[in-house]
Write a structure and sequence with these properties.
By secondary structure, the chain is of the alpha+beta class. Helices cover 16% and strands 51% of the residues. The protein contains 2 helices and 8 strands, in the order αβββαβββββ. Strands 1-2-3-4-5-6-7-8 form an 8-stranded antiparallel beta barrel.
Length: 183
Amino acid sequence: MILKKIFLACVILVAMSPAYAQKYFTKNGHISFFSKTILENISANNEQVISVLDIQTGEIQFSLLNNAFHFPKAKMEDDFNEDYMESSKYQKSTFKGKVLNITNINFGKDGVWEVSVTGNLMIHGVTKNITARGQITIKDEKIATVASFRILLKDYNIKVPSIVSNKISESIDVTVDCLYQKK
């Protein structure tokens, strides 16, 4: 009876392993953003991005704490968290989507593939569908992704007081850069 249970457990584990091996993750992905105006450039980096990529289905997810963005100036970081992102109220930003052309990628071969990703981006409590172009790089059995896209602050109900509107752009360039490992 015990041998039968052990055998059954082994069969279940073996059956699950191919699907399980298709998922890759990172807990230290990188997301940065940049805003350029005549008066001031604003940039920030977040190195604590959690992401999961399923190379079989193309499903991809990102999650980050808004207060983990770091700025060159402490005042910018305070303003970002308190006045614009309201990080105590809207603690996380997320993306849940799909790599549309995942079947074109040979994950067993080194190379660089152009990809298109679409999904729902949630920032400041507002969810919008976005599409972005990017690249997936395979090198030495490691998977790296990079994508860039632009968002408009008004689309996510992020208000900029008129007194500082000449210092903060209405659009923000976002770059996502992750190195994944098998889950």
